Each structure stands twice: as structure tokens, then as C-alpha cells.
Amino acid sequence: MSISPESFAFVADLVRRRSAIQLTPGKEYLVESRLLPLARAAGLDLDAYVVRLRTQGAAADQAAVIEAMTTNETSWFRDGAPYAALRGTELPRLVAARGGTGRLRVWSAACSTGQEPYSIAMSLLDDLPATMTSEIVATDLSEQVLERARSGRYSQLEVNRGMPAAMLVRHMARAGTEWELSAAVRHLVSFRAHNLLDAPPAGPFDIVFLRNVLIYFDLPTKRAILERVLRVLRPDGVLLLGAAESTLGVHEGFERVTVERSSVYRPLAARGLRAPTVPSPRPAGLAHASVPPTVPPSPSSLPVPAAHALSRGAAR
Amino acid sequence: MRALVIDDSRTMRRIVAGTLEGLGFETLQAEHGRDALDQLEAGAEVDLACIDWNMPVMDGLEFVTAVRANPAWRAITLMMVTTEAEHSQIVRALAAGAHEYLIKPFTPDAIRDKLDLLGLVPVEELA
């Protein structure tokens, strides 16, 4: 079912105003695939659903559209390489810098249904020395995905997406037809609703995951978001972006460093190099999408072949 | 890259092999663990074996154990692909020497995710 140009323009404008996400021409297919289930549930075709949205404008309907358009696919340890960078280089560096004591704080921004913050939590549980504690603040625009994330339960199909078997048996247990995260993992993560264009969660943070999010925004919005991140990131902290994202040409306050076949971003020491703060283009709702790769359980706790496989993965 | 798909279900062999071929693998197939061992002993060289658990003649766990007992096959990555979904079974498979474990049913993306974990995504796929 094709969406009319008028309906697409209305939805694109609504999503831009509420979330700052750009739906440019050519994204009609995305709107169709995301909104068709809502239209069917309402017993309408796509255009009739949008007409109802325009004429009646129910807040609940609009919220449902924003949810549908901004919720994205996610998987455990998404892309692998960033987690290899985290565990191979960044965590050891930060642990050494803190003298192996204190509390490490992580912000998982646009955390979607929780696979990213929980993957980080498993990594911290496996890698941090017992003398350190940690905390992960996980945020997303969508209350709907946060509710799912808080449950800590995932279907078999979801668990199949990127969860290393050795991590699965160490940190999850069967719960009927689903899998449930251990209390130790869940206790490290707190979820809250947050719009990336609003003031960031209270810092400072040692690590910020902002993966596969910036790609949805225009340049001024990207810059405004990175400025907010810089404000809460410790001077020796680290920012991890998606593989298709970079601070280069967007914000001069970060230095790109290549580690473990991945790029990470550290604040530049010279504050004067930061780009000026840019006002929000138009806040309101920013959403979603992020997620993880695949990573290595602590080799020492695995049977030899598993450790072998993980080290191969990390070496890619 | 070459993969050996071991499953007593021809349909499942086709699904797994088809997904792997779509990712750039060449594939061989075996109906059970003994059939797979015969092919390896005859000189078949593979980078990956995808192994069902419940099969006649020789099951998946026995196959994993046999492969791990032969140093000549140390480089073969072993991934269970099975309906067996209990926590204790995954632990057993890993302890026997499996590198990864994929529970049926699965999506093609799930196989790719596992290969990515194992460092086995063909080079052209990374471009």
C-alpha cells in the first residue's frame, strides 16, 4: 500500500517537530511499513489513518506514530568491534586512570529495548575489578521500549541476535519460553525517559554510548547533541558512536582514536577547540535506536574453544 | 570460506546452507555426525561446522567431542544449531568444545550475527 505525498509530508513534519528526526523523500517505504500495523489496528487504510491523525489529532495517536517511527532494530553486542574496543582498551585505560577504585558511570543513550545497556553491564561485570562499582544510565524517548527494557526478559529470537553463548549461560536463565537477565546485570542499569535534545542526564559519565542515533538528524541537531554529551563526559572519558557516524565535521571538541578496529572519541583537552554551543533546532522528542554487537566473555571463564573463538572475533 | 552443515533434516540443511551461501560460503552437507566425520577424514577442509544436536548414528555432541579430540581439526569453528534450548545443554555443548550455539528457530540475521561474533563474516560482507 503506497502512502500519498500529502500523507507522507504530514507524517514527516509531525515526526520532525516531535523528534527532530528527518524523513526525507525516498523514506516513504519506512513510513508505510511502520504505520501500516497502526492503520490496520484502527481498521483503516494508511491514508485514511493519516487523515484521522490530521483532523482529530488525538495525542495518543500522535504518540503512537512517533513511537512507531522511532523504534529501531537492536541486538546484543551490536557490531562487535565497539565492544572489543571497550573491553580491550577503554575499560582497562579508565580502570588504570581511576587507580582501580571508585565508580564507573556509563550513559547508554537511545537504548531502545535494552540490549545495549545490558550488553555493557555484562561487560562491566566480567571485566571490572572487584574494587570498582559501576552504574549504567539508559535512556530513550519511548516509554514503550523502556517498559520492555525494564522487564529484563527477551524472547528466544531476540536472544539469538548477537548474544554470545558463553555470555548467555553466564548472565541469563530460562524463564518459560523466554530468557531472563540475572539480577546482577539488571541492578547495574537504570532506565529513564529522555529526549536527546533536552538537558542530558546528570553527569559526569566515564563512557557514553550514542550509537546509530546521529544518523537520523541534520547537522545542527547532531552538533547540539554532541555538545550536550561533551558537557557530561569526563575529560578522560570516551564516546562510542555507530560505525556510520563520526564527530568529524560535526563537533570539534572530540578526538577520534582508532582502537581494536573501531573508532572511539575522546574529549579534546583544549576546551577552546570546542565548537560553539548550538541552540536546539526544535526539541521535543528524540528517539531511539541503538544497539550492540557481539562480544567476548571473559576468556578465563570459558571453555578453551569458546575463548579461542572470542579472541578471533575480537581480533577481526 | 567453507562450511559443513550437519543435520538429519534435508529442509534444515537447505535453509542453513542457503543462508551461508548468501553470505559467501561454499557449503558441504552431512546427514549426521558420522557422515560429517567421514567427510573430514576423507580430507574435506572446512572453516565452520553448523551442527544439529539430535541426529541418528552420531549426534551433534558426540561429533563435537570427536572433532575436539583430533588436533588436526583444531581450526574448525563449531556452532550448534539446534532446538535444544535448555541452559544446561548450552553449557554442555560449550564444555565439549562448541564455540557458539544458535537455537532454532532463527532468522538469517541471527546466523550472520553469530558469524560476526566468531570472526567468520566473509571479507566481502564487511565492505
Automatic annotation (TrEMBL), chain B:
Keyword annotations of the record: Phosphoprotein
Nucleotide-binding keyword on record: no
Record's keyword annotation contains Phosphoprotein: yes
InterPro entries: Bact_response_regulator, CheY-like_superfamily, Sig_transdc_resp-reg_receiver
Domain named Response regulatory: residues: 2-119
Modified-residue entries (4-aspartylphosphate), positions: 52
Gene Ontology biological process terms in this record: phosphorelay signal transduction system
Listed SMART domains: REC
TM region positions: none
Alphabetized Pfam families for the sequence: Response_reg (PF00072)
Name of this chain's protein: Response regulator
High-level lineage: Bacteria, Bacillati, Actinomycetota, Actinomycetes, Micrococcales
